[in-house]
Amino acid sequence: MKQLVLAGGGHAHVQVLAVLATQPLPGVEVTLVTPQPTQWYSGMVPGVIAGRYAPEEAQIDLAALARRAGVRLVLDAVSALRAEARQLRLAGGAELAYDALSLDTGGEMSRDLIDGARDQALFVRPLQRFVQLWPQVESLAARQPGLQVVLIGGGAAGFELALAMRRALVARARVTLVAGNAGLLPGFSRGLRHRALSVLKSRAITVITDDVVEIEPGQLRLSGGSRLPCDAPVVALGVQPPSWLAESGLRRAPDGFIATGSTLQSVSHPNVFAVGDVASRVDTPHPRSGVYAVRAAPMLIANLRAWAAGRALGAYRPQRIALALLSCGDGTALASWGPLSAHGAWVWRWKDRIDRTFVESFGDGVQLASSPAQ
Ligand SMILES: Cc1cc2nc3c(=O)[nH]c(=O)nc-3n(C[C@H](O)[C@H](O)[C@H](O)COP(=O)(O)OP(=O)(O)OC[C@H]3O[C@@H](n4cnc5c(N)ncnc54)[C@H](O)[C@@H]3O)c2cc1C
């Protein structure tokens, strides 16, 4: 039997598992390595914080998916990879050999990008831990009216979470968004950024365009030299390459993530596939978001099947522009498609339907949902 290891239960691998339940890979033993038996669906996490979803509505049951797919489940995390030796080491100490490896582990949020963050801040990733710790901020706000909550990170996650926290904490806390020197929602159109700024203003969320350089007890130090009072710093910055990639021997893109080509294989090790945030397409670079990971899944499935059968692999071209739907925490959302943008309750209903459909489609493990939007 050939050994295929799926590392991480990210947006693409949940779909691989769903398909394997009805269309197994002949002659291949498949193993899923995941630290958690469920996958938090990030698109619904701001809704969980805002109290719009129950935690179980925003999770996909990986253990059940693996069971239905006849896939061996290993509850552990990859801690080292030796691509030449075709070997993984897991955090629990076990070694795992593979013939082919598919990586959908996402990126890591570094604890050391900002001085003092490791000890003082709440990090948005891993999502599991973030959602677990969030109630502590809520009870702090209940005990300490006027609590200063500061979101650090001006991307889509920081924007959505600032509004979700405002919704959850109501008037008990002051919410500030420190967007960084690049400003709010870099990479989005001017129209969308303008709309986003007015939504934040209307919810009394202060936006600061500066970088946080240090987190000290009770305050943040900004790159411009000023200090900002802060009782609860929440870090929502972008992801970095997982540390275990450093010694893997896999060729990496200039940004440090796994360099992949059109077949979703590593450009240096063709028996290693990588999709989602952990990979960087060197032929057609695109931003990191769940949408791209989801869209790559059908080609990943086809290519894993082709690898198993010894057939030629297919090429996948990511979309040039992706739809982004950003929840505002109040029953409205922003839509962004290239230069176009919109805001309203209808956008929220649209996002809610897409996200729920995606997560619920894994309830029976056989359906493939359409792509979620940001
Ligand atoms: C609050 C928030 C909201 C977001 N909303 C959206 C949105 O609405 N739409 C959108 O497109 N994007 C959104 N994003 C971005 C999106 O979350 C990521 O781009 C997306 O999750 C990447 O998907 P992935 O499949 O690469 O990895 P992930 O979804 O991160 O999944 C990786 C999986 O691998 C597991 N894993 C991690 N390390 C290891 C290891 N060492 N060994 C084994 N398994 C491991 C993890 O536990 C996890 O289950 C949001 C991000 C945040 C933080």
Shape: globular
The biggest sheet, with number of strands, parallel, antiparallel or mixed sense and barrel status, is: 5 strands, parallel
CATH homologous superfamily (4th level) name of the largest domain: FAD/NAD(P)-binding domain
Supply the CATH class of the largest domain: Alpha Beta
Q: Report the oligomer.
A: single chain
The overall pLDDT, averaged over residues, is 95
In the CATH hierarchy, what is the architecture of the largest domain at level 2?
A: 3-Layer(bba) Sandwich
Q: Approximately how much helix is present in the residues?
A: 25-40%
> How far do the termini sit from each other?
39 Å
- Count of all domains: 2
Rg value: 21 Å
**Helix- and strand-based class?**
alpha/beta
Uncertain segments are 365-372
Bound molecules: flavin-adenine dinucleotide
Strand order within the widest sheet? 5-2-1-9-19
Q: Could you name the CATH topology of the largest domain?
A: FAD/NAD(P)-binding domain
